[in-house]
Amino acid sequence: MALSDLTVADCWAYRPDLTVPEDLDAFWGRTLGAASAAAATYEPVDTGLTQIHTFSVTVPGYGGEPVHGWLHLPANATEPLACVVEYLGYGRGRGLPHEKLFWASAGFAHLIMDTRGQGWSAAPGGTADAHRYPAGTVPGFLTRGVTSPDDFYYRRLITDAVRFAQAAQEHPAVDPDRVVVTGISQGGGLSLAVAALFPGVAAAMPDVPFLCDFPRAVRVATEGPYGEVAEYLALHRDQSSQVFRTLSYVDAAVLAPGATAPALFSIAMMDRICPPSTCFAAYHRYGGDKEVRVYEFNDHEGGEAHQQLEQLAWLRKLFGR
């Protein structure tokens, strides 16, 4: 591997002047205001595990459409818990109920959101994108409805993500003042968007975040989903302005100044999927207190288990326990 983007020093200096739509706040106010306020449902799941209780979750997401997930709770919990809400990487679904146990093992409630229409890669999903597409549809999601902010796929997905954070805050086993959003890649971008759009978030932990600084990402990423936009524009040569306008409504770097919760970022300097400069763009623009862990010799895997330990220590310090 080698650097395919800016150096660390150049990334610290990189502060792009991103275009912010004049109606950005109105767009998201209208979108989230129309989201269903119906309560989430939780069905117990027998995983065979004795120290963690697991529930299959259904949250009404964009358009009231059912979005599935898992909730893990430590079996010995006696008081409301801090909750980590996790959003998943591009292509992943919620997977099997016993796959992600780290946060519940550390004493947190852990709510995992399935990703509508995705779930074709490492972990299967069970949530259709009822707008048009069944679960497990193969990419690309970055060009679905990309000529209109109202029709764009990520409008629906970000709405789902906000609804999951709200559902966590409303669960009786959760302390509503300690809801944390996190995720890797696509999940990192979603956590940034939720931190900006939902003031109830107590902290955000975006890892190697996707959905950041689209004007640069589409031009410099050498692998991964950003290339879908480049391929689309290679065919639709007259739609560049329209497409980048739509992308600006969901760009986590554009939304980031609206966040006020403390954040812990991670960025990998040899990342060929989410170029580090684009992640730094979101970091620099983030509105709350922030820290970053930079992995100089890692690709898109970033910090992996090392970063989880960083996150755990950071949260315990933040929450004072």
From TrEMBL:
<feature type="domain" description="Acetyl xylan esterase">
    <location>
        <begin position="1"/>
        <end position="317"/>
    </location>
</feature>
<feature type="active site" description="Nucleophile">
    <location>
        <position position="185"/>
    </location>
</feature>
<feature type="active site" description="Charge relay system">
    <location>
        <position position="271"/>
    </location>
</feature>
<feature type="binding site">
    <location>
        <position position="90"/>
    </location>
    <ligand>
        <name>substrate</name>
    </ligand>
</feature>
<dbReference type="Pfam" id="PF05448">
    <property type="entry name" value="AXE1"/>
</dbReference>
<dbReference type="InterPro" id="IPR039069">
    <property type="entry name" value="CE7"/>
</dbReference>
<dbReference type="InterPro" id="IPR008391">
    <property type="entry name" value="AXE1_dom"/>
</dbReference>
<dbReference type="InterPro" id="IPR029058">
    <property type="entry name" value="AB_hydrolase_fold"/>
</dbReference>
<dbReference type="GO" id="GO:0005976">
    <property type="term" value="P:polysaccharide metabolic process"/>
</dbReference>
<protein>
    <submittedName>
        <fullName>Acetylxylan esterase</fullName>
    </submittedName>
</protein>
<feature type="active site" description="Charge relay system">
    <location>
        <position position="300"/>
    </location>
</feature>
<dbReference type="GO" id="GO:0052689">
    <property type="term" value="F:carboxylic ester hydrolase activity"/>
</dbReference>
